[in-house]
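Worked Example 4.2. Consider the chain below.
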Amino acid sequence: MNRKIILFSIACFLFTTVITAQTDKKNSYNVGYDPVTQGLYFGVDHAIKNYSIGLDAGSSFGILMPLNVSLCLDNAFYFGRQNKYNMKTWHVNTRLAYSKILVENKPNILFIVPSFGKTCSLSEKLGLNIELGYGFQVLDDWGNSLVGSGSTYYFGGVSGPIVRVELKF
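Applying the procedure from the previous section yields the following structure tokens:
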């Protein structure tokens, strides 16, 4: 299990390094809380016109769900009128969130989370992002046997409304 955590950390570092190596003007960093799929997370987003793609890594710290580490790939499309900072503030988002639960006899979980949200700009670089969505669990992997035999792919399982609040800077 320690080997998987180390590989997970290296993958997060490499992905964020690649995104950060792009022009810094188009990157934004965020810290937020998602009580269902991610817990407390930190991330980076790379903007391309009205679209952004990003990676978040976080942990629940065992507060509302079992202790886990999570990795989330998200993309957002921004639309609507521009605010005084020339940014569109409404967006639709789809996230792919993976959680590795660190407590024995608990599965690895994969969620697909479609959502919509609004960014309230506090300055040109600082904003508060609030999203409402619905999480669909699509993977329940107990990881106790050969590849594929301990995994169940389905729509259903743990699903429900999700609220996500983040500070972008």
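Residues 35 and 64 are 7 Å apart (CA to CA). DSSP finds one helix and eight strands in the chain. Compare this with Example 4.1 before moving on.
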